[in-house]
Design goal:
Strand content: 25-35%
Shape: globular
Distance between the termini: 78 Å
Largest sheet: 5 strands, mixed
Helix content: 10-25%
Structural class: alpha+beta
Number of strands: 26
Strand order of the largest sheet: 4-3-7-5-6
Oligomer: single chain
């Protein structure tokens, strides 16, 4: 007859199985533990069909600090990995935290892991299981001048932090490999001599296909090296754009010119983070270059993408090769506008109601319409009545209108003059899209 047992692993990491004895499973992967258990039971009961299943993983606590969105103590399952812990902590801060230098300390043992190798290549050795009691710290990214750069015929050109032991092929893998029209005989490495300031160039070639690419005489890289992968003669170059700042996956993305839209790019980048300021997105198009005194000045256009995030495609922009988009963080302040004695920007006060900010702005001006005060939410662009249960958040605006406006038209003009927006942004977007 079939028998089953539900057994708990002891704090010492052992499993006590009736009629079999004690089996040590601490430090083993789930697959390893299952094999050890089944082998031991099969030896004791050779004519039996033995299975072992994990019914519930134990919970562990890890302490996460440094450049993540939600530092602190987090509880996870013991079969989860380092990347899972960082995801629970809100992920590494874009453009600020280092995915290549994540430090894990447990007891007197400290190790540094390169999570970029896991994210880009699926290397599980750089994404260890959690044991419980670890202290994890995400270090700052190194300065851009010390980072590696790869451009040309790769799928995702851009900057990559340097790590000892990096070689050219590693950088190609971080850029998600070659484009189909890459010239594999024209891989150029540029290096600046720190003593003389002169640039030295090296030319390499690659062979193979798919995941089996290899570079002949692959060379170790140094901080600040630049790698360019050439295109085959006459090949059409893939258009790319860049998105930086407060999005989940910042970086370079391949597009179809005048077909891929700004909303497509934002979606591919995982959308804005909780810290993003969607109404202050900066859009740069190098093709709009004016010359002043012989210098090239690329224009910077500010976009309000709240309409896009709300599904209004009339605000969308078709992208072109070389476009750059920057999504800034929300300011840690609240702006008071309109009929107050001292309108302006005030430091954010956690849980403070709208009235508290109005008092700090000197109070109401004569003629203020106190019954029509509105809070303009930074994340959604919505106008809301002040409510103590939903106080102003960082980046929000508090608008105090004048009592009894002379006409509806004047009231509408006052609103748009104060918040600065949708109509002006629409015109800017139309100009960019044309």
């Amino acid at each position: 007859s079939a028998r089953s047992f539900v057994l708990n692993v002891t704090p010492e990491g052992t499993l006590l199985i009736p009629a079999i004895g004690e089996i040590h499973v601490a430090g083993r992967t789930l697959r390893e533990a299952r094999k050890v258990i089944v082998d031991a039971c099969t030896a004791g009961f050779p004519d039996s069909d033995i299975t072992a299943t994990l019914t519930e993983a134990r919970r562990v606590r890890v302490h996460i600090a440094g450049l993540v969105n939600a530092p602190g103590t987090h509880e996870l399952y013991a079969n989860q990995r380092l990347a899972d812990a960082l995801a629970q902590a809100g992920d590494i801060l874009p453009e600020r935290g280092s995915a290549r230098h994540v430090v894990r300390t447990r007891g007197d043992r400290t190790e540094t892991f390169d999570l970029l190798s896991f994210y880009a290549n699926g290397d599980l050795s750089t994404n260890p299981y959690l044991e419980g009691g670890e202290h994890i710290r995400v270090l700052p990214r190194e300065p851009v001048e010390d980072q590696l750069q790869i451009t040309g015929a790769v799928l995702q050109p851009g900057f990559v932090e340097y790590r000892d032991g990096d070689r050219v092929m590693d950088l190609v893998r971080f850029a998600y490999s070659f484009q189909p029209r890459a010239d594999l005989s024209a891989i150029a490495v540029g290096r600046t001599d720190p003593q003389t300031g002169k640039t030295v160039s090296y030319t390499l070639s690659a062979r193979g296909q798919g995941p089996d690419w290899s570079i002949d005489d692959d060379m170790p890289l140094q901080r600040g090296d630049r790698v360019y992968v050439g295109y085959q003669k006459g090949a059409e170059r893939m258009a790319t754009v860049a998105i930086y700042g407060e999005v989940v996956r910042p970086g370079h993305y391949a597009i179809r010119e005048d077909s891929t839209m700004l909303t497509d790019l934002i979606e591919a980048a995982g959308g804005p983070t909780a810290r993003a300021s969607p109404r202050d997105v900066v859009f740069l198009r190098p093709s709009y270059v004016s010359r002043i005194g012989g210098d090239s000045i690329p224009p910077v256009v500010s976009l309000n993408v709240l309409g896009l995030l709300a599904g209004d495609r009339s605000y969308d922009v078709p992208l072109r090769n070389g476009d750059s988009i920057f999504v800034p963080s929300r300011a840690l302040d609240v702006q008071v506008l309109g009929s107050v004695l001292r309108p302006g920007i005030l430091a954010y006060m956690p849980d403070a109601p709208a009235e508290g900010y109005i008092e700090r702005a000197g109070g109401y001006s004569p003629g203020a319409d106190k019954g029509k005060v509105r809070v303009i939410r930074a994340l959604t662009g919505t106008f809301e009545k002040p409510h103590d249960d939903y106080p102003p958040a960082p980046g929000d605006q508090i608008m105090v209108p004048v009592k009894k406006p002379s006409s509806v038209g004047k009231w509408v003009r006052n609103i748009f003059a104060l918040v600065g927006v949708a109509a002006t942004t629409y015109l800017i977007v139309e100009a960019v899209s044309k």
